[in-house]
Each structure stands twice: as C-alpha cells, then as structure tokens.
Amino acid sequence: MRSSARFGDAAEAVVVALAAGGDREAFCELVWRRQSWLRNLLRRLCRDPALADDLAQQVFLKAWRSLAQLKSPAAFGGWLRRLAINAWLAQARSAGPDVVSFDPEDLPAATFIPSAAEELDLDRALARLACDERLCIVLAYNEGLSHGEISAATALPLGTVKSHIRRGAERLRVLLDAYHPDEKEHAHVG
User: Digits of tens for pLDDT over the chain (190 positions)?
Assistant: First the structure.
C-alpha cells in the first residue's frame, strides 16, 4: 500500500531532497517506490528471498541514516544500488570463502521445463557462479550497467569486470545448456 498520496507523481529527486531534510513520509515514499527493485536485485545476487528481504531492510536503514550525505538527489538510484552491493558483498564475505562447484554433471537429469520456469533455471545457474562473477553478470544484464559503471559501483578494476562477465556468461551458457541439452537436437530436426 502506498505510504502517502501527498507525493503523487512528484519526481524522485524532489522526494529524495525532502527525505534528506528529515521528512519521514518522503522517505517512506522512496521505500515504497524502490522496494521491489531493490529486493529483486538482492534476490538475484543472493538467491535467498529471506536474506534479500533482510539485506533490503539493512540497505534502507543505512539509506535513512546517511541520506543527508547524498550530494545529488538525482543520484539516489545509483547510490542506493551501491549501498545494496556493499551490503551483499559484506554478507557474502562474512559467510566465508565463496566455494563454487562448477560441474554440470552435478545437475539433475534434464527434463522439459516450461518457459515459466526459465527464470528459476537462471536463478539456479546464477547461484553456481562465483560471488564476483554473479555480481558483475547481474549488474550488466539485469541492471543494464556498462562495464565502466560496474567497475565504479563495485570498486573492481575494469579488466576484472570484463573477465568476470566473460567467464560468468560462458559458465551460464554451459549450465543452462545442461538444463536443456535436447534443445539443440530439436533445433536441427525437420
């Protein structure tokens, strides 16, 4: 449910400026506008809806506490994304070393999966990527960021970002092919 009709179709930068000045209702409006996007980003990164919700709450709390430090209200979306990335990276690092077993043979035998389940396949495949690869892939393909923007948002060198995206995309291809090995056969039939 929407927090307030007071803001109607007000530009986000206006609502951010009010929230930065301490207006709690304006901040509630920002949470209402951005919560789905933020939770979806975090869900893609951690593949755990409960953890994504917890991290989203942490991010919004951090945002409320430090919003007055934001120099440009128009930069709110990127700033919030950076807070989310930092929260997820901190959680991932505290969980221990990123152990990834990349062996398509570990996957269950392929069966026909309706197209409605393709997103689940992608989530499973993303979860098999190394932490930094998954981060770069999600930011590139889900968030539409350029390599330079990903480098700036993650503090990873540009060459490392490019490598993570290249390797991660190749691993995703292999993993997703393992879910649907007979599609190539069917494509050549007829």
Answer: 555 678 888 999 999 999 999 999 999 999 999 999 999 999 988 878 899 999 999 999 999 999 999 999 999 999 999 999 999 988 988 876 544 433 333 333 333 333 445 666 677 788 888 889 999 999 998 888 999 999 998 989 999 999 999 999 999 888 888 765 555 444 444 4
Tokens of 138: 């999600």
Token pair 């269950």: residue: 108
Identity of residue 182: D
Alpha carbons 152 and 147: distance in angstroms, whole number? 9
Domains of the chain: 12-94 (1.10.1740.10), 104-189 (1.10.10.10)
Question: What is the distance between the alpha carbons of residues 134 and 169, in angstroms, rounded to a whole number?
Answer: 9
CA 47-149-176 angle, 5° bins: 35
Sequence-ordered list of residues with C-beta below 8 angstroms from that of 115, at least 6 positions apart, any chain: none
